[in-house]
Amino acid sequence: MAPLPRRSPAGPSTFIILCEGAFFEQLGLRGDFSCTVGDGYFELTIDYPISIGQQAFAVTATPPAAEPVDNSFYIKLIDTDEEVIDAAMNIQGLQIQHGLPMTALDLTWSNSEAGQRSTVSLGFELVSDLPELNPPVLHELVVQLPPDFSQQVTNALHIEWADKALPYAQATPAGLLDGPLMPVWLDATDPSRLNIFLDEAAAEDLEVGTYRFSFPVVVPALIPAYNVFTVTLCTPPPVNATYTLCTGAQDRQPGPGVVPHHRIQFGGDTPHGPEGHRRQRCLQDG
User: Fold this and answer.
1) Closest CA to 122 of 3, 254, 266, 281
2) The Cα angle at residue 45 between residues 43 and 47, in degrees rounded to 5
3) 209 CB-near residues (< 8 Å, 6+ apart)
4) Are the beta carbons of 140 and 198 closer than 8 angstroms?
5) What is the per-residue pLDDT for 34?
6) What three-state secondary structure class fits 233?
7) Distance from chain centroid for Cα 167
8) Average pLDDT for residues 195-223, to the nearest whole number?
């Protein structure tokens, strides 16, 4: 048995961290754990030896009003003798965005069987009006799938909106080619993500409410440790730059909104939100 480890992640001290109860997502971690928050860091003590492979967890954080000068994070793995046995330092944080008050909707799905097709439903809620002066320019919505999941969108009918729908672009962005079956507002060439192009002018007047949509995926044979679907709203690329698709939260052009959705796991009940079945945030092993 390896010594029981302790993870000690830290970031700018101006972030407010909450990691107890519902504020913590276990994701790929096993066993029980406790979390302690300090000034600019938190410690996660785990009662189960960490196995070889990827690990993942999530905590709730409130970012500061302005981006800190040093917007970087680190994570250390410490054993019971207080020795650092591994670490990742100087992890650059995302740019802090303003002007789009939004929260993630619960992730729902139709099937969680390994290797089978499933319909996932996700989205966001716009909780207040966009600012009248200089509203954010919304050019593109990107859905990033967890590793080893693959989206199965082959035509426009595979994208279904349950509540309000985002305004689609009326033409494919310059520099991209239309697919034979794809509408001008959709790019599904990468199985690990979806790109939906928006009408920038119409998006300036988004109504308060929920924007939930669904699409088909294939569930992998093994659920990855980082089992998170991410929705990112991206700004336009720089003027006169060669057009490239926004790839998500780590892209050069992420917009003012990034929302994560946790998570599909094998077994148990199947929440299927758009049809009114039971909804839940994560499905535990059955």
Assistant:
1) 281
2) 170
3) 125, 126, 163, 164
4) yes
5) 85
6) strand
7) 21
8) 93
